[in-house]
Amino acid sequence: MLERQGHLPGYTGHIAKNPALEEVGPVPVKHSHIPNYQGFIPSVKAENLFGKTYGKITEISSLGTHNKGKDIPPEEKYKSIAQENYTNQLRINVMPFRPKEYPEPPVDPITEIPPETISMFFGQRVPGGMNSTQGFRLSNNLENAKQNNQTTPSETLLSYEEARKLASTS
User: Distance between CA atoms of 19 and 162, rounded to whole angstroms?
Assistant: First the structure.
């Protein structure tokens, strides 16, 4: 009898033509188990360059400013990482030499528009007279009161008859 791979006698269900591929899990990320180890730097052998970033150590080694060998000056030999990283807070200037300069505030565009234009837009008249071309004008009551030495401008309101006359003529 001919045997076929994947053929079971009497089984009438689905038989896959291609075998299923096994899924492979993600590759674990390799990381250092040594604290403060930032990686291999070619020109630095086993020197006392630790507790700094990779960029700082690379810069120090490329400039050649680090101490090589066993003979290290006592200032660096007995200096802790905390003394090297942190600054003395008493040496920091708290007050700057001059006060901070702030830019001028932006100009409000409404102050550049003449009051007559604003009053024509809002349909009120300016106190002190009115002709048919002025129509209803908005006046800045506070500015006009200061200019005319008035406390309350009473001329700004029109009566019903005046408003009808003005509306029919214009």
Answer: 98
Domain that holds residue 88: 36-92
Asked, for residue 10, whether it belongs to a domain, the answer is: no
Secondary structure (DSSP) of 95-148: S-SSPPPPPPPPPPGGGGS-HHHHHHHHT-PPSS---TTT-S----HHHHHHHH
Residue with tokens 């837009």: 121
pLDDT, tens only, 113-157: 888 888 888 887 766 555 444 444 444 454 555 565 544 555 567
**Distance from C-alpha of 147 to C-alpha of 145, rounded to nearest angstrom:** 5
User: Phi then psi for 56, rounded to 5 degrees?
Assistant: -65, -40
Q: For residue 123, tell me if it sits in a domain.
A: yes
Q: Alpha-carbon distance 125 to 167, whole Å?
A: 13
pTM of this structure? 0.25
Q: Which of 28, 62, 92 is the last residue of a domain?
A: 92
> How many separate domains does the chain show?
2
Which tops the pLDDT comparison, 84 or 4? 84
The contacts of residue 17 (CB under 8 Å, 6+ apart) are none
